[in-house]
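Assemble and predict.
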Amino acid sequence: LADYSEHLEDLRAAGAQLVAISVDDAARAETVRQELGIKFPLLCDTSREVVKKYGLLNSGEKGGIALPASFVIDRDRVVRFRALEQVASRINVDQLLELVRELGRGADPQTKPRHRGVFPGLMFLRATMNAMRHGVRSPNK
Amino acid sequence: MDERHIPSVGEKAPEFSLADSTGVSRRLDDLVAGGMCVVVFYRGHW
C-alpha cells in the first residue's frame, strides 16, 4: 500500500482513481490509513462479498482474507491489466503507472514497443479497442 | 457464480459498492467514470 501511496498523484495525473480493498473493518482500515498516511480510500469488505466475486478469497487464513491482487479497470469496467501477487513477482507500481499513463493517452501500440513482450494480451485488446473506437469517435478531436 | 474465477484482462470486472474506512460509500462504476481505476486487494490485518 505504501508503494501505491507514493504514486497516488502520478496515477491521478494519468487519469486513474486508486482504491484498496481488504476484509478489515472500518476501525482497522482507518488505523492503517492514518499510520501510513494513505490519501486514497481503503474499502472494507467485511462480508467478503467482493473478495469472493473477484475470486480472491483465501479461506485458509483467519476466516478468509483477500489474496493480494491489482487490477486496472477502464470506464467500461473492463479489466485492462491484472497482477496476482501469489503467482507473479511483487507488483512493480512503476510499471503499472506506466501502463495507466499509456492507457490514459490512448497511445498507439506502435509508439511503445517496449511493452510488447510484457503485455501481449493488452496489445491485442488495445488494437481491438482502437478499431472499435474509430467506428464511433471522430479521429480528430 | 464460480468463486474461484479471477477476472482477467479483457473481461468485465464485477461491480461493487463498499464503504471506505471513513464511512463513505464507493461504487466501482463511479470510480471508473473519470477514465480508469486501479483496484488493489490487500491482505489486511484481520
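Chain B is about 10% helix and 25% strand.
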